[in-house]
Each structure stands twice: as structure tokens, then as C-alpha cells.
Design goal:
The chain is of the alpha/beta class and 261 residues long. The protein is 40% helix and 19% strand. The chain has one domain (3-250): P-loop containing nucleotide triphosphate hydrolases (Rossmann fold, 3-Layer(aba) Sandwich), CATH 3.40.50.300. A hairpin with a 2-residue loop joins strand 3 and strand 4 (95-99).
């Protein structure tokens, strides 16, 4: 049985960076197979991980829609899409990547989400860990791209706007009855001068959920500016060390077992 980890948050809070650090943790700890899913149409998880995805779900759906006559005989359109999407999974050492992309055809986006949701349900059992970097904001939740997760990490930054957005995401997930076993709030880019206790107080109304802080890290900014992969980030990175500790604390080595990383 696989462990599904989902990451959500407002755009610009470092959601994809945190996602990539979590993926790096799972690969470096070598606790099992990992599938990273870039469910954000503005796909850049692969770039951050240093993996180039040759195809994505959006492009595959567009291509098939324009070439219906090329679907192999005896194969339905849906089955052919499923086959092509599974073939589009990019394999790397200890890590596979599947990218959502954005279809260009009118009315295709919801369909692309349905395809992704179905693929996640079918292939997740083939991996020990599935990490889903969701689209920024709230809309993807209403489409239920992610129907269940063992742990949902909701990312904020140390601003009122980011914190309020994180709390809205949490409320919407609860309202939609999405099956989440555990929630963890991560407040990202916390500086030395930030009143950490004040940040945590903002979540006092949902104090039964985990709240973690990740420090501001100039190495992360440097790597983003120079388009370098997080997989090459120094082990001395404060953000990396903090995220690794969060994973050790909240993610079990196997579903149903105590944390043993």
C-alpha cells in the first residue's frame, strides 16, 4: 500500500520548492519507490528536480483530440489516453515523474483533471510513495484532482495573505470531505526577526493540526535564480534540513507503521 503526500498552497509561497525537498528526502532515504506528480498546469516541478519530462497529460490529450483516426483499432479513446499517459511517466534514478501540463483545446481542462485523477488511482499502488504538487490556489480542490491523501501539507509564507489563504484551503478541503488522514501546515521563509509564536497563534483555531516552520534560505533563492535543480542543493541548506526533519516527524516509512525514518 502506497503513502500519498499532497502539497497545496497559494502561488508564490514556495509550494513546488517544498515539494521537491520532500521528494529529495524520500529518494535519499531510499525507503521505496517514489512517483512525483506535477499536477500544476504551470509545470515546473521537473525543472526543480532536474528531470525533463518529454510529454505531459495536456499535450497528449490535445494530440489525440486532433488525431482521433490514429487511435489503434480495438482500443477506446480513454484506454489509449491511459496507455499514452502511463508511457509518459519519466523515469529517473529512484524517482519517476508525471506532469499534468495544460491542454489547449476548449473545455479540455476538466477532462485532463479527470484523466489525471484516474491515473493516480490506478498507478499509485505501484509505488511506495506518491508526492502530488497540486495547482496553486483553491480551484483544483473543487475539481477534486486529489481525492485522498495520507498527509496534506498546506504551504504558507510568513504573511497575513499567505496564512489566510492556507486556512481557506484547509476549510475548503474539510467542506468537500476530501479524505485526508493528516494535515500539516508549513509556514515557509521564516526570518530570524519573525515572531514565530505570533505566526503559530494564527492557527490557534485549528490547533489540533501540525504546524511547522521552514526558515528563509538564501541558497534556495540562488538556485532558483540560476535555474539549478534542488537535487543539487547543499546538505547545509537550512530549508533542506528543516524539511527533512518535517518528513521524519510526519511521514511513516510505510503506511500504518510508526515513523521510522
Amino acid at each position: 500500500m502506497s503513502c500519498t503526500i499532497a502539497i497545496a498552497g497559494k502561488g508564490g509561497t514556495g509550494k513546488t520548492t517544498i515539494s521537491s525537498l520532500m521528494v529529495r528526502f524520500l529518494r535519499e532515504k531510499n525507503k521505496g519507490s517514489v512517483l512525483a506528480i506535477d499536477a500544476d498546469p504551470n509545470s515546473n516541478l521537473g525543472d526543480v528536480l532536474g528531470i525533463s519530462a518529454s510529454e505531459n497529460i495536456g499535450a497528449i490529450i490535445d494530440e489525440i483530440a486532433k488525431n482521433i483516426d490514429k487511435i489503434p483499432a480495438g482500443m477506446t479513446k480513454n484506454r489509449y489516453i491511459e496507455y499514452r499517459v502511463q508511457s509518459a511517466i519519466e523515469e529517473s534514478i529512484g524517482l519517476d515523474l508525471l506532469s499534468m501540463g495544460r491542454p489547449e483545446g476548449p473545455g479540455c481542462y476538466c477532462y485532463a483533471n479527470n484523466v489525471l485523477r484516474g491515473i493516480i488511482q490506478k498507478i499509485s499502488g505501484d509505488y511506495d510513495f506518491v508526492v502530488i504538487d497540486n495547482e496553486a490556489g483553491l480551484e483544483h480542490l473543487s475539481r477534486r484532482t486529489t481525492r485522498r491523501a495520507d498527509c496534506m501539507f498546506i504551504i504558507s509564507d510568513a504573511t497575513g495573505v499567505g496564512i489566510n489563504s492556507a486556512k481557506r484551503i484547509y476549510s475548503l478541503i474539510k467542506e468537500l470531505n476530501i479524505d485526508i488522514k493528516k494535515y500539516v501546515f508549513i509556514i515557509n521563509r521564516v526570518t530570524e526577526s519573525t515572531d514565530k509564536n505570533d505566526l503559530i497563534k494564527h492557527f490557534s483555531d485549528i490547533s489540533n493540526e501540525g504546524i511547522e516552520l521552514v526558515p528563509h534560505d538564501t541558497q534556495i533563492l540562488e538556485y532558483a535564480t540560476n535555474n539549478r535543480a534542488i537535487m543539487d542543493l547543499s546538505n547545509e541548506s537550512e530549508a533542506l534540513k528543516s524539511t527533512f526533519n518535517i518528513m521524519k516527524k510526519h511521514i511513516p516509512s510505510r503506511v500504518g507503521l510508526p515513523n521510522t525514518f
